[in-house]
Amino acid sequence: PPPPPPPSYDVLLAAGPEELLGHFGRGGARLLFSAEAFCWPQWGLAPAYPPRGEREEVPQFRRLVGFAPTVWRLVQRWRYRDDDDDQLFYTRLYLDPALRAELGLALDHRSQIFQNLNGAIEEVKLHFEGGRPRVRNALYGTAPVVLHGNGPTKLQLNSLGNYVPNGWSPEGCGDCDRDVRPAWNGTVSSARRPTHPWGRLTAP
């Protein structure tokens, strides 16, 4: 099988598994991939993709959700070296119409579950819903569950992490009393503060 994706050090979970699985179940796919605006690693394959959403999107295969038997059937088709590009492997499989239909492969075009930040920063807005911070995709009106700071968007992901999933809000900081340690004089202190207000990074 292809090499496993690297550990997700650049991901925030904005909601729990119930919401994620609810979106996945209603979508009808057997295996759903995240999507982004960049056709990596072979840009020339972009025109081969089926019709897409409001903006041009192609798979970002490092983020997926699906049924284990479907994932297994897909990865069993790996016939390359361990250091070959796994995204190109998945791209070629997805572009096979017969295989795409047989395995029930689909892309999360509307960011129902996955939000890749690279190429989509202007679409991402921070809202406070019932006092709870939540990221929304302004283009599609969705509230993605998995926020991926891919490419050069680590600063923006870090900024969002000050609020999502349970950080700063107009009502205070939901997470600030977690894992605090007594100071030398016996008092409890926490120095967590937002490192960069999200409002400075995107237009309202």
Would you spell out the secondary-structure blueprint of this structure?
Layout: E1 11-13, H1 17-27, E2 31-36, E3 58-66, H2 68-75, H3 86-94, H4 97-103, E4 105-107, E5 114-116, E6 124-129, E7 132-137, E8 146-148, H5 154-160, E9 168-169, E10 172-173, E11 181-182, E12 188-189
Pfam family, one: GT_PLOD
Protein name: PLOD1-3-like GT domain-containing protein
Domain PLOD1-3-like GT: 8-171
Structure overview:
The structure is a single chain. The longest helix is centred in the N-terminal third of the chain and has 11 residues, at 17-27. Strand 11 (181-182) and strand 12 form a beta hairpin. The protein has a 3-stranded mixed beta sheet, with no helix packed on it. Strands 3-2-4 form a 3-stranded mixed beta sheet. Strands 6-7 form a two-stranded antiparallel sheet. The protein has helices spanning 17-27, 68-75, 86-94, 97-103, 154-160; strands at residues 11-13, 31-36, 58-66, 105-107, 114-116, 124-129, 132-137, 146-148, 168-169, 172-173, 181-182, 188-189. The relative contact order is 0.17. It is α+β, with helices and mostly antiparallel strands and 204 residues long. Residues 8-171 form the PLOD1-3-like GT domain. This is PLOD1-3-like GT domain-containing protein. InterPro entries: Collagen_mod_GT25 (IPR050757), GT_PLOD (IPR057589).
Summarize the structure.
This protein is an alpha+beta fold and 204 residues long. Helices cover 21% and strands 23% of the residues. A hairpin with a 5-residue loop joins strand 11 (181-182) and strand 12 (188-189).
